[in-house]
Specification:
By secondary structure, this protein is of the alpha+beta class. It folds into 2 domains: 3-101, Aminopeptidase (3-Layer(aba) Sandwich); 121-239, 3-Layer(aba) Sandwich (Aminopeptidase). The protein contains 8 helices and 11 strands. The protein has helices at residues 3-16, 56-69, 85-91, 132-144, 155-163, 167-179, 222-236, 249-256; strands at residues 22-27, 30-35, 44-46, 75-78, 95-105, 121-124, 183-189, 192-202, 205-213, 241-245, 261-270. It has an 8-stranded mixed β-sheet with strand order 4-11-5-10-9-8-7-6, with helices on both faces. A hairpin with a 2-residue loop joins strand 7 (183-189) and strand 8.
Length: 275
Amino acid sequence: MRDNETIERIDAFCDAVPRVRARAEEHGPLVLFVPTGPGWPYYARPRLGARPAITTADVRAVRARQRELLIPESFEWIEQAAPDMAAAAADGGLDVHAHPLLVLDDLVPLPPSPPLPSGVTVRIVAPDDPDLHRIWAVPSVAFGNPGTARGEAGAAERDKIAADHDGGTIDILRERLRSGQSVLAATFGSDGPMAAGSCQAVGQVAEITGVGVLPSERRKGLGAAVTAALAADALRRGVRTVFLSATDDAVARVYARIGFREIGVAMIAEPAQHR
């Protein structure tokens, strides 16, 4: 498959996913996804297909609507699919961030399972797993301490976040796992979950998101193991294109070691105070 076709499939996926739980409002060349029930907020993005050029006024209009609805002023898109969006977002008062977009498409055999430290296992998490609240807390600790270097934050920080979790959030997660809308994988050691990440699929395209490792457990191959487990599970279920966006080039190199390749640039724009 040519890269431009793969990007088109990924772009269509990013437009389709929010429509399951959100109402799509079209604002000129942009579409805003408005949640219709409990769960996580979505973003605005360029419309699929033929559309007018995106202007600063378009971005400001959508930002005003997001403020009116009390939802995050967030925009996401693929640079190759909407090269006019970045300048309009920046001129519209947003901070624009670029992230490597990587893909694992039509791969045979399945991605290799990286070797794990002694006593560490990796598995797909069941909806009724009693440790689900601690598993879900792992990426929160990881993203609160960005980078790939080892750090001090670990099990204690994970368990504190888990204790403060809203029960409704975990109920929604269990429902998504039961329905198959999401798949969750994690690595486990003697002190519980150490790394975790998610995957969701629409048709033959799947995205891996939120892969995080406790800073105290970094540099052990745990993030790669979780990613490989999610990718292998998606491919076994008939997915042809698995993709993800990396925080930066250093993180992208972790994914490259298990077969992902860079195909484009994933873009995010948000107000500066959200950094």
